Amino acid sequence: MAAPRRRAKPRRQPAVLAVVAVLALVAVILVVVTRVGGSDRPAGSSDSAAGPGTSASDASTPSASPTPPPRPRRAQCRELSYQAALATSDDSTPISCALPHTAMTIAVEALPRDTAGTLLPTTTVRSRARVAATCRREAAAFLGGTAEERELSMLQVVWFVPTPAQIEAGADWFRCDLIALRAEARLLPLTGRLRDVIAGDGAARYAMCGTAAPGTTGFSRVVCSGPHRWRAISIVPLADAAGAQGRYPGQDVVRERGQEPCQNAGQDAADDPLDFQWGYEWPTAEQWSAGQTYGICWIPA
């Protein structure tokens, strides 16, 4: 019997690119502006600016409040650039979804408020977490499929809040938009039916691949419909390693936890179970704080 062929050395260095972190770390900044109406003149003082026949009280009447901007609606499409997708706010004009577009609104929700009904500034961790959790939940329901299938796609959700001026005018919503990455810092036009796309036949259209083995020079995530050399095949959940506090367990822990699962996944996917390659990309602390509490298993395409 011929001697078994040696398995190729696994690739086990972390990838530098953090697609999820880039999008999930979009800082949602909300400034609450309090407008004070009325006059601050001392009682009984005269108003030299008031013309003949005009009382001081008439001259100090505040102007009408500005009109709130139109509330976004679900299923509106927009042509956003990559940089625009990272912005805190977006007031671009919706376009027909029949035209080329890179973003589609999948949810519009009310901004978080405290128990007294006051808007919470979304610079706080609590408010940002509530906005992010809502949009991720909406994206999961919209895309369908399993959590693993969604994480292995290049589809992402981003969110926008009104500008300070819009908030002052009465805007109290935030918007969840679906986008897709073609490659690093490049958006992919959205095509076809998107609702339940992960659960259906359209998942391959947005599948995640790589330009090289994870952790090697030249690696970046790209959509599988473009040129690629490696393919993401499964994820390794790591949240339980964080304990009750959910803090990043440390690089040594997340690196070690994925070795055996990814080796097994590579072996299962190989034509020859005695000669195969596999790769493991574990999350950085930054990616972890952005919500990527899992590693990714890769194989040559």
TrEMBL record:
Chain intervals for the UniProt region annotation (Disordered): 39-74
Pfam families assigned: Septum_form (PF13845)
Top-level taxon of origin: Bacteria
Septum formation-related domain: residues covered: 83-294
Compositionally biased intervals (Low complexity): 54-64
Protein name, per record: Septum formation-related domain-containing protein
Organism for this UniProt entry: Nocardioides fonticola
Taxonomic lineage from the root: Bacteria, Bacillati, Actinomycetota, Actinomycetes, Propionibacteriales
